[in-house]
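From the pipeline queue, job 12 of 40. The input is one protein chain; the requested action is below.

Action: predict structure.
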Amino acid sequence: MDHADSAASAAYADVLIVGGGQAGTQVAVGLRSAGFEGSIRILEAGGHFPYERPPLTKAYLRGEREAEDLLFRAEAFWQESAISIELGQSVVEIDRAAHQVHCGTDRTFGYGRLVWTAGGSARRLPLGTGIDGVLSVRTLDDADLLRAHSADIHDVVVIGGGFIGLEAAAVLREKGARVTILEALDRLLARVTSPPVSEYFASLHRFHGSDVRTGVVVEEITSDGDGAVTGVRLADGEVVPADLVLVGIGLVPNIEPLRASGIICSNGVDTDADGRTSDPDVFAAGDCANRVNAYSNGRQVRLESVPNAVEVGKGVAEAITGGGERTEAAPWFWSHQFDTKLQTVGLFNDYDDFVVRGDVESGSFTVAYLREGVVIALDCINSTRDFAQGKSLVPARRTVAVDLLADTSIGLKDLAGAART
């Protein structure tokens, strides 16, 4: 079917949402909650109704939750809310002049407003293609493959020292696998946190028996005659044995149809604070959206987190329905590894100093980040109290004396009151 034929039979929605993850779900639910009475359709490339993704490398991998437990809403909710969900629909082309999208299934969908929440795909290594046992985790189907493999594995190599890889490494180590973590940079989590936090997590994984190596270069993923993975060869010639290789080296935003249609894209699809792209009828939210955040020091940032997807999803729904001005909440994030809980609030972009609150060796401490004396972000490790109070301190944008900030006998809520403006 060519585009001319498909255009005549295009299914139309007043708001067409591409991607059924956290952001897309938030937009749809937010529209209905605001009283939007127009038609809403979600196009989801996968085969599952909208579900949570963070548990995939935590509770789901452990077997503590099953697929039905991850659903945002029961299927009946979508029907009752008059929100149509089309599964297995991957958009390959956007015709902005005709207000239509074309899918790989040869189906065409029309729209009044288009909301792009297609997220991203796991970044692939140019190695290991076609080798059985080389996996990544981004979707429920990915996690199912990992669960199936993890039952019989002995040696796991995790390539990449980011949150996804470390969370999965922790669970696989708890399951009894021998785990080796390989990171190309000189420390774990180097792009998202400071040296004390990186060192803490490296020590945590080593304490639990994992082999953590930084500053290493992977040259090859090896396999046997049947195409099953056998190991990872490093630049120095060493081959690390593996019957499973998990690649966790980041995410590539799914934006090519937008870019090809002429919408401005850089590190993701560029939007304003409310999720509007360079086309006033096209919005974007979630992991693929690149925007100036109120906490990013004027920089465009692409945040990969559930709270960000919820926050921007709400903003898109309000922009479409003409809602009033809103105050942007400070970004926050969490990660669970072994018995450790990291909670982050704010963005540490361009920090020029940091202060450690508490004893790192105790496993309960906070790192506060400052820019010109202003507290801009916190990493709270097993420090829920600091995180809860920090969610008020960071938005206050206050200057705090370093000696007070380091004093754990003073609560962060008290520091907000004692801050020097």
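Job complete. The two ends are 65 Å apart (CA to CA).
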